[in-house]
Known about the structure:
Layout (H helix, E strand, L loop, with lengths): L2 H6 L3 H12 L1 H16 L14 H4 L7 E4 L2 E4 L11 H31 L9 H5 L1 H23 L5 H31 L11 H24 L6 H37 L10 H25 L9 H13 L1
Antiparallel strand pairs: 1-2
Helix pairs in contact: 5-7, 5-11, 7-8, 7-10, 7-11, 8-9, 9-10, 10-11
Amino acid sequence: MSKDADVEQAKPGEEQQAAPTIESAAPTMVSTATTVIAVTNGEASPEVAPAAGTEAAAEQVKPAGTTTIAGIELAADKGSNKTNMDPALINFKVLYVLTQLVGLTMIVLVGTWIGQHFGGLGGTSNPKLEFNWHPLFMTIGFIYLYGNSILIYRGFRTTRKKTLKLTHAGIHLAAFVLTVIALKTVFDSHNLASPPIPNMYSLHSWLGLSAVIIFSLQYVAGFVAFLAPGLRENYRIAMMPLHIYFGLFGFGLAIASALMGITEKAIFAITNPPYSTLPPAGLLANVIGVLYVVFGALVVYLATEPSYKRKPIPEDTALLTSSSANE
């Protein structure tokens, strides 16, 4: 008998039995695809439910934090998961920690410099020792705190913007208080010296006082524009670029003034052996100056790199909507 005849004599029941066999292959193919995707993503294979071949299985409630790709549930990327974190955010965190380490090292070295080589700290009874408050408080307030106030919005990305505004203003206020004390100590050390030392004759003093004035005007303008109620939102938006620019400009001017100041102190005070021979006090002064530059460069880079910009959170949107409605 020919093959065609065999096909013609096939029973209806045999044709019905062949269909389930073909249908049962589909779940196996889906399972294989699931395994391939899990390996490609470098993640552990998700548990695959028994192949049911029904639409009800696809409509089951998905656990939180899952993503469906072609009907297959995969773990969703989470911002808190370091393995799935945005590379730009990872770079920011590394540089942010490095900035803090440089800043703290800078403060410790300034304290060591004035403690070991210039007699430590003192009051008005000893003008030379009273002067030593000036580099210490300027380093803490006008460089370290000023820089961290600039970075507050990017360093604390998930905090409400209103809280960040208050923190930004608070850090600026602390920096301003330390700066005022530092200025008083330097004027006292000049006026109470015997004989008195002239004030405001050096380029360091000119640029330093200019930086303090810019810083103070920035604080007042920022408070009126972004904290005090009543100013329309469009005015705040218009003032923001100026606030950012002059904030960074004042910070850069503070760094430049600090470099001039520490050089001036090294030339005048390191005399035995002289600064030109690079004794330990002179070497430490140079290292502090380098740290000033590195800290300033890191702060400016972190504050201006577009990929590090803080993204608004839902609370910010709600606050902005409420503010616009009140106006």
